[in-house]
Amino acid sequence: QVQLVESGGGTVQAGGSLRLSCAASGRIGWIYTMGWYRQAPGKQRELVASITRDGGPWYQDYVKGRFTISIDNSKNTVTLQMNSLIPDDSARYYCSANLRPSSQDAYYDYWGQGTQVTVSS
Questions:
Q1: Contact of 115 with 20, CB cutoff 8 Å
Q2: Is the pLDDT of residue 40 over 90?
Q3: How far apart are CA 61 and CA 26, in angstroms?
Q4: What's the CA angle centered on 69, arms 34 and 60, to 5 degrees?
Q5: b vs e for 54-93, b when ≥16 Cβ sit within 10 Å of the residue's Cβ?
Q6: SS (H, E, C) the chain
Q7: What confidence tens digit (pLDDT) does each residue in 75-103 have?
């Protein structure tokens, strides 16, 4: 069993910052990538940023220069630092991890329950 637990969401004014964290626990085995998705009401869930185990980040164009993703392999934790937030960043943010529980397993995607981010204008 693998669990992803997010923390750090909340409400902030435009221009403010929030820091999201996600800790993976359980039968983790080997993590390939971790990332953050978001879903606003009436919209599809979309990938915001991801990072590989060796620290290679990827960002959606609309968060480049504002968001920073980092991974702590020793703690199986991924963090998303969000600066210069705008109202369009308001959404529920979900942590994801692509991992295999053991060397005999395939890689699977796991998801957290999500944390709400609201940016007021």
A1: yes
A2: yes
A3: 33
A4: 90
A5: eeeeebeeebeeebbbebeeeebbbbbebeebeeebbbbb
A6: CEEEEEECCEEEECCCCEEEEEEEEECCCEEEEEEEEEECCCCCCEEEEEEECCCCEEECHHHCCCEEEEEECCCCEEEEEECCCCHHHCEEEEEEEEEECCCCCCCEEEECCCEEEEEEC
A7: 999 999 999 999 999 999 999 999 998 88
